[in-house]
Structure formats: structure tokens, C-alpha cells
Amino acid sequence: MTELPSFLSRWGAEEVGPHRLVIRVEKDKLRDAVKDLVSADEMIYLSTMSAVDYPERGVIELNYFFWSVTEKKGIIIKVEVPRDKPEIDTITDILPGANNAELEAHDLFGVVFKGNKSLRRGFLLPPEIVEAGIYPLRKDAKGV
Amino acid sequence: MAKYVEVPVGPQHPALHEPIMLRVKLDGEVVEGVDIVTGYNHRGVEKLGEKNSWVRDIYIFSRICGICNAVHAQTYTQGVEKLMGVEPPPRAKYIRTIVMELERIHSHMLINAVMAEAIGFDTLFMLIMRDRERVMHLKEIITGQRVHADIHIIGGVKRDLKPETAEKVLRVLDYIEARLKHYKKVFEEDYTIRKRLEDVGKISKQEALKHSLVGPVLRASGVPSDVRVDDPYSAYDELKPNIVVRHEGDSLARMLLRWDEALESVRLIRAAIKNMPKGNPVPKAIKRAAGKGEVFSRVEAPRGELIYHIVSTGGPKPYRIKVRTPSFNNIVNSGFAYIGERLADVPVILTSFDPCISCTERVLVVDEKKGLRKWVPFMALSRGEIRVA
Amino acid sequence: MGMDVRNKLIRYSPWLVHFNTGACNGCDIEVLAAITPLFDPERMGVKLAPNPRHGDILIVTGAVTKKAGERLKRLYDQMPSPKAVVAVGACAISGGVFAGSYPLVSGADKVIPVDVYVPGCPPRPEAIIDGILKATKKLEGGGEGD
Prior knowledge:
Oligomer: heterotrimer
Distance between the termini of chain A: 49 Å
Number of helices of chain A: 4
Order of helices and strands of chain C: HEHEEHEHEH
CATH topology of chain C: Rossmann fold
Radius of gyration of chain A: 16 Å
CATH superfamily of the domain at 4-97 in chain A: NADH:ubiquinone oxidoreductase Nqo5 subunit
Distance between the termini of chain C: 18 Å
Number of strands of chain A: 7
Shape of chain C: globular
Low-confidence stretches of chain C: none
Strand content of chain C: 5-15%
């Protein structure tokens, strides 16, 4: 019915538990993967995007969690961006539902999503924290 | 010449863990665009979670939302149980399910009551709230608390369900079921309610999926997606809930769908009490450290899919916990649904997304040309008593 | 005695202004429950004010985020005197489980003067009504309640 199985084998998905699959991609391949996924299965939505800071590896890991309504599978696309230059292309033009997740990761982790026009600090944070240039959910954040 | 007027709605409007402000741009009475401003309720819960222990976090995360606290506790504990390799006893799963379904009934009653109030039907609001107290009472006799259930602990529940309590629950459920059916009929047949809700804030299937809307909003647009069925947790794999789907995609469909879901919850609670396994649901000792790993834990909250990303590097504290509440998607991403509607319908559409409640909602009407700023009650706006043009 | 009677005669029907400063909504649904038929505070003249300028008693719930704190101060200033403030729930009293988190001021009394504290997480509707009645004592006699 859907092209999802061929998508999963094309991108080397690895099963990590019941209803959960993980795909690891390079950051410049993220848009291709998302475009491919959306065309493979039209009953899919981006559930959330979770950022995790790993200072010892020098990266911030972004976990895009998609849910396929018909196939009943959670597809996690993992991307790493360098901590010193946390930039990645936006996917809001493909899936506008990514907007809130990108705004949140920008505000709390300082990840820049290139091409997202509504990106701003203070989406969640009070002005004092923004003015002090603190990204509170980074592991080395001071004063929070 | 078009005269644009900007109307901020809120921020004294608590939408789950981020009360928001809608900055509505108007051309006459018609909405041209909506800006959503958040952050009034950002409490830094995720950072707090990293600082506290696995066990203490249950209480912090269940206090993200007072209305759906048991589902927050469920999402968190089931994720942590997976990381710790703990399996709760079957009876504990059933008790958790009963508490979560009671929560769904009272939450759905609450938002329908708030909708009644938003469209000026105060009597209906009071009636639904009166009957909702029965559900709160059931929650209290089962968990010991009206609002914050706090019944989840790692590896089970805090207290058993006594047979006499279960009997009382079944008795009160009969009353609640009759009232739910009555209110559903009111929403289906009342002329005023239909006039205000029908065809207002229509969302198509594709739009709902594209903008990541979840829960009743998604199902009212014809997408059969329910975590309890698709990705079963707790006792749902045995209880087999039915997915309620509607295809209209308007505000009325979203409200009627909630009545149907509440009735389905009544059925589930009855089935859970009937098929409750024997055994001791209260664990003797609580595990306090987790191994390495990460987990995406999903639960169907009353407002839709609730998802936690829990990362552990081993030890007594979590490394990272990401919480995505259903309202974070449903409210922040739904700006498109207001465009082309009338100002008086903005509160109706917002309420139909179930953004939690407040009776102090207020609206600041700004007429940029005259430099006029005027505070008006949100309810008066919804009733069309305020003219801004 | 004479003063007492006069106070009774001209006593307020206290109207409430309810403000959520970053609560989990637990206290808010209990405040809402407290004004509905089962508890029926309207027999004491208590009802929600349509506007802060008509309000006598400010009910504060929530841990008071920095962003909401500014709003709380403004709302308090908009209310006419005499006025009383009731802090409902552990969060409004001290920040509750969220105390010490970075976006919070943790406690309504850090921003505005509080007259009555109603503890609980959340307090029962009966306790909230009791807190409101204690606050009316301040409005009636200018006293501090009991």
C-alpha cells in the first residue's frame, strides 16, 4: 500500500524495539530523507524533534520522530550537528509541523535552522536568559 | 481600503504548559493571519528533570499538566521502566488504565463545558461541571487525590483498588454514562451550538497531518490514529479500545468526537474492572538507577499523542528528557486554521483544540490607526458583543 | 458591635480575578470547580469578575514565571483598593516542585503582597473557598483575616 518498506531499506533503517526504527543520516542529507519519507507514505506526520547535547563528542544530536499512521511505525531520523557551529537546513517547507520543534530547539539549544523565517529567541525563554546568551538545555549552560 | 486591526488574545490564557498569546490580524471582521506568542508558562521542566533523580522526576513531570497528570506519569514511568528493565504487575497496569480513562472523561467533559461557556451557554457549562464532580470523586476514591493522581511509581502503582471501591466506581459510571449520552445529544441537536460550531475552523486530513496536529483534532479530520491502539501500552493491548473517527474536520466534529471518546472510556473502565487480574500491584522496592539507553515513550493523552524522549547514560539521574505535549503541536502549529474565519470564531476554534482553560481570558483590542488600546473580555468577543471595525 | 453590623450591611460580594502565572492547571481546574454548582460560592456573593477593574480578590495560581510575573504586577495594579490576594497551591506559595528553576521567580509574594496562602497540590475546592472567605475579612474590616 505504501512505499514505506522500500524507503526503510533504502536508508538503512535499524529496528530498535517494537514500533521503533532508527535511521542515521548526515546533516546535508536530512532534507532528502524527509522528502523521500513524505513521498513514500502520505499518512505520516512529524511527531516531535528532540535535541540532545553531547559535549564530550562535540555534537548536538537531533532526533526527528515520525509516526506512520497506516504502518504503525515510529521512524526516528538521527542527525548530528557540531556544537561549535550548530546549523542545519529547515524542513518547515516540507512539513510545516516542524516549526514549533525547530523554534524550541533554537531557543533552548541554539541550533540554527537555515531557511526558517520565524526563528527567534525568546519563543519560550524570559528576556533575561536570552540577553545573557544562555542556552539552558546545553550541558555546560551556566546560571540555570 | 483594508484597515488592519491587531487583536492579541491572551496571554492570560493557559494552554497546557505554555500559555500563549494569539496576535490576530484582522481585515474588518475577517482573520487575515495569526501569530502565536508563547513562553508565559515555560517552567524549565526539562532542565529540572536532568537535575533530579529518576524517582523524584515522576512528580515533577506529572505536574507539567494538572488535567492530564496521570498520562504524563504513565509516559515517564513506562519509558523509565523500559530503561530499567522493570515490568509492572498486570494488576498495576489495569489500575493505571482506569485512572487514565477517568482522566480522559473529566478532561473531555471540562473542555466541552468550556466550549459551552465560550459560546454563551452558561447553564450547560454549570451542568456539565456539576456532573464532572462525580468523575473527580471517583478519581479521589481510587487514588486519594482529586486532581494529581500520583498513583504511578516505578514498577507498579501506589495503592490497590479495593473491591468495594470498584463497585462504587461501577455504580457511579452508570450515572455518568447517562449524562454523557444526554450531553452528546445536546451538542448534536441544539440549534445554537450547531450554528456556532458547524463548518467553523475546518481542517482537512492532509493539513492536519502536515501540521503535526494530534489526538481528537487529527481524528476529527478523518485520520484513525490513536496511540492506545497503534502502539499499545499499559492494559490497552488486552482491552482493545475502539478508535473514534469523524470526517467533517470542523469544530463541531472535534467536540462530538470527545463525547464519543468519553463514552468509550466508560466502556473501557467497566471492562478493566471486570477483567482485572489478581495479585499485588504495589512493588516492595523501587529501583533507583537505570542502564544506558534511550527510549521514545508514547501515550494517548486526552488531548492527543504525548511523547517523551528519555536518554540515560546510566546512574541515578536522567541525561535528557524531552517532553512534547499534544497542545504544543495543536496550538502552536494550528495558526493556519483561523485564516478566513471571523474574529468571534477565534475563541471557538481555539477552544475546539482543547488548550486547557481559564476564566480570565482577555483580549486586547488594538486599533493601530487611532492608536486605541482597549481591554475587552474574551467571552464578550466570542459572543459578538465587541465591534472592532 | 455597631461597627460589626455596619460592616455586615455594606459588606462586599467579593468578585474574583483569577490569574494563572505558569501553573499546571491543576489548581486552575480546582478554582474553576470551586465556582461551580456543587460548591456554589455564589451563596456568599463570590463570583468571577469580568474585568480586573471590577475585582476585589486576586487568586494567583502557578509558580510565577518571570514573563508572567510582569503581567501579575500589572493585573494587581489595575484592581481597585481595597483588594486582597489569595495564593492558591504549593507553586504560588513557594514554587512547589519547580522551585529554583531558571525561568521562575518562585512564589507570588515575591511580586505582589499576598494575604492568604492556601496550601495543597492542588488544594481542594473547599479549601479555596475557605481562603477566599478569609480574604473577605480583610476587605470588610481592613483587618488581616484570621
